[in-house]
């Protein structure tokens, strides 16, 4: 099916905001009822859109037509997240619901070996038959990693911990599996999930801040995901907080990462107490129990995170900030320090931004990569 711009707009509107009555869809897209009918007809005939079954939703008996919705089962996508030592992959439907997942160790970062693992993971998730074999056909593959990569460029520019630069990974995957493949920065891929299927729906400006091994930041401004030059937007991880603070891995004294990342928190508590066996979770538990050293480290972490969020909010003016990532549960241990710092560093003419804390499951990273593939396919494919 050849897609016009109007067809893409209608389909995305129904995917993100549907089910919608025809009148509501036409109103949202500023189309006449007859134009909407013309645009939706090919999708309905091909089975991508359908009328919600009678009795479902809010439609009342006797109305001439039921709300329109996307049949999410008609296409599948694969998302792959690469870390330094493991590959995580999921298969999703058109609505980003995870249908299956798998993971594989990465023994090294030799491209042939990594490519072999990517192909294996895709075969695991599609039953070796890339045309579907009874399942909906695989439309595209998304691959995300920490580093500079964007969906409109097949090349990983830099990924320090994979040791790659200028690697045409998307092209290599496409050649190996025969379906379109796109790359993305991992935090921006997560931001896309929130934009179309999460807390960001209905907001034209929001930020996603992730905490875990580092600090990530994805930005949507004016309904567009901000990528910046070569995908370099949102690098808040080493923001200066206090030049008397602890040191990060790169030797910055008192940067945000040195306060907030889970390895830094663990290092500070375990180092001060001379208890190298303590895990990050142990440190959270000690702080929760009021242990003074752990309490101080977590308060400082919360305070630094509040300053990061206020700084992002001051610069981009988001309607909300979503906090997520592997270590986001630390928020429960340092919320007071976070809120105090957020209020203190928010510009005096603004009220502190609304913050939503989103629990995190590790397969969200791979799901993000699937949504990168899905967005790219629907908007540009
Ligand atoms: Zn740093």
From TrEMBL:
One of its GO terms (molecular function) is kinase activity. Keywords: Kinase, Transferase. The keyword Secreted does not apply. It comes from the Bacteria. Belongs to the ROK (NagC/XylR) family. This is Putative NBD/HSP70 family sugar kinase. It comes from Nonomuraea muscovyensis. The lineage of its organism: Bacteria, Bacillati, Actinomycetota, Actinomycetes, Streptosporangiales.
